[in-house]
């Protein structure tokens, strides 16, 4: 008896070479055979017999035929779920933090709407680059940690928070949520944009909504330390029941974030757990207003700290 395993390989030339044990007390090589995913899938409706060949015996013995046969009795394809699948759930399942019923937005969408609708008033063009991270993208299933929600790499900007929400909901229908969850790539991307204009005329605010499962803590700390010298702030909203010790560590209120002996130039991270703002009375408007207030509480001071350390004065309005 043997079992063939193809880890995510549906290609026609994916070889299978099972080596069945000679007996219960040894693991001598008996022989091998080659097949493919496509061939196996075609044979699932009927028994298929494969000759098991031993290359050494075949070369030494002229009358050698085979070392036995393997009969395929059945064939099935099974999904191998990851840790992330179980803690997040599929977006279509009510247990998922991304699930939106016809009557209520998901936790992710509520947090995005509550914070975004306030902060968008401080943006002149109301165009927001929006990215997802931790997902497999079609058509090849490649894992990405910074993909545009609107599926437009050349222009990832969405029109207003409603546009961001629309792109977010649309992306849930096309991507497969997948780990690991890495923050550093998107932080570095925004930092790259912030580094282009450092004269005080632009200030970037990165909003990250996450379930708290972070996989690249060291790289994220490094990215935050680097970003602390740039005109940008980072808001992290944690959704779901996870313990957010890792997120608290990134919020530099008590201890400044450090990496490889370097400390953040200033505190640029604000973290809040979404669950602290879920009103049991059902007053969603009030609870989301409290969330927005606390999330944005540190942004003015963070902006001022950047301007002061670089002696940047406010620009006078053009006379009309």
Automatic annotation (TrEMBL):
Residues 78-273 form the VWFA domain. GO terms for biological process: cellular response to calcium ion. One of its GO terms (molecular function) is calcium-dependent phospholipid binding. One of its GO terms (cellular component) is plasma membrane. It comes from the Eukaryota. It holds the Pfam family Copine. PANTHER family: COPINE, COPINE-9. This is Copine family member 9. It comes from Bubo bubo (Eurasian eagle-owl).
């Amino acid at each position: 008896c043997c079992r063939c395993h193809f880890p995510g390989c549906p290609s026609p030339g994916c070889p299978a070479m099972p080596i069945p044990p000679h007996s219960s007390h040894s693991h001598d090589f008996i022989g091998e055979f080659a097949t493919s995913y496509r061939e196996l899938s075609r044979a699932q409706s009927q028994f298929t017999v494969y000759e098991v060949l031993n290359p050494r015996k075949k070369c030494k013995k002229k009358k050698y035929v085979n070392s036995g046969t393997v009969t395929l009795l059945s064939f099935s394809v099974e999904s191998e779920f990851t840790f992330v699948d179980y803690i997040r759930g599929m977006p279509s399942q009510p247990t998922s933090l991304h699930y939106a019923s016809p009557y209520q937005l998901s936790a992710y969408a509520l947090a995005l709407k509550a914070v975004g609708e306030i902060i968008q008033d401080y943006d002149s063009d109301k165009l927001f680059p929006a990215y997802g991270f931790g997902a497999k993208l079609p058509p090849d299933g490649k894992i990405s940690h910074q993909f545009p929600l609107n599926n437009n790499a050349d222009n990832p900007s969405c029109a207003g928070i409603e546009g961001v929400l629309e792109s977010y909901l649309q992306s849930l229908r096309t991507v497969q949520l997948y780990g690991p969850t890495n923050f550093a790539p998107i932080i570095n991307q925004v930092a790259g944009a912030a580094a282009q204009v450092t004269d005080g005329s632009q200030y970037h605010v990165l909003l990250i909504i996450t379930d708290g499962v972070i996989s690249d803590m060291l790289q994220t700390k490094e990215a935050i330390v680097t970003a602390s010298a740039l005109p940008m702030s980072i808001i992290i909203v944690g959704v779901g029941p996870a313990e957010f010790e890792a997120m608290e560590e990134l919020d530099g209120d008590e201890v400044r974030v450090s990496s490889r002996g370097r400390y953040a130039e200033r505190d640029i991270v604000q973290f809040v757990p979404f669950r602290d703002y879920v009103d049991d009375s059902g007053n969603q408007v009030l609870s989301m207003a409290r969330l927005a207030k606390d999330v944005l509480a540190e942004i003015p001071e963070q902006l001022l700290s950047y301007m002061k350390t670089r002696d940047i004065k406010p620009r006078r309005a053009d006379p009309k």
